[in-house]
Amino acid sequence: MATPSASGRSLGAQLAQLRKAAGKNVRDAAEYLGCGHPKISKIENGHVGIAYRELLALLDLYGVTDPAHRERLVRLSRQRRQRFWWTPYSDFLSSSFSDYLYLEQTASRLRVFEPLLIPGLLQTPLYAAHQIADLYPVSRDDETMRSLVDVRVRRSQILAQGTRLDAILDEAVLCRPVANARIWRDQLDHLIKMAAEPNVTLRVVPFAAGQYHGGAGRFTVLSFSDLGGDVAYMEGVAGEVTLDAPAEVGLYNTMWDHIETVALSPQETVDLIQEVRDHG
Questions:
Q1: Nearest Cα residue to 199 out of 266, 117, 248
Q2: 277 against 139, higher pLDDT
Q3: Is the torsion defined by CA of 270, 271, 272, 275 positive or negative?
Q4: Are 94 and 6 contacting, i.e. CB atoms less than 8 angstroms apart?
Q5: β-strand pairing of 219-224 with 164-170
Q6: 0.90 surpassed by pTM
Q7: pLDDT digit string, tens, across residues 163-209
Q8: Is the CA virtual torsion 47, 48, 53, 54 positive or negative?
Q9: Which pairing describes strands 219-224 and 109-114: parallel, antiparallel, or unpaired?
């Protein structure tokens, strides 16, 4: 099945914003629907779905009359039952990562900081295969490995669809080539190619920057054109963490701003990658 907590979270957040903008509280909404107020809270938190007639009723209560806006929210509510491209891989993915894939596919902008590896959205298939094999030291069968690589590569399709990607790497990433020199050169060539795309900005924090605010490790901040507030995401071997509380996400926004101030310019970054590619 689809990832209801992710799509439901997006819909719920928008409904909460509309309710507040209309000057209504949770009890007002519950009374209008004829349900208990905990149900409204669960809808707004993405924990339960909302029936079509209930959604239309709330939109009436909140004064949402624009047909296009109403239709967007109806479509979002139906996505709870939709199949996505990663649905066939569900046996190989955690539910939290499936949730992240939904967020990644619906985000308008991603800011990715990576201190050790090429970001997943910018990996070639062969580089991805090597990294996945290294990151999961436990024995995995060929089908699982192929599926994990497929998922990682297919994620990058959002870039061809225009999603904005701002990626910052530590220079250490460029000093960690994979075992096969040809795969590494192809990966660097791919980075240079992607850096030329109008919706991709790639920058590197050089060793010369000294100590900076990258010690917390890899993270991604996702922004949404139709959802107020960002979402922060961290991924590790033991699992994934998604944060959407403004105070928590604010810490990662601040960290991103600090990292950005010490990173090379996009052109300096491409020049450095080219130098590593030519002399590595």
A1: 266
A2: 277
A3: positive
A4: no
A5: unpaired
A6: no
A7: 999 999 999 999 988 878 999 999 999 999 999 999 999 999 999 99
A8: negative
A9: antiparallel
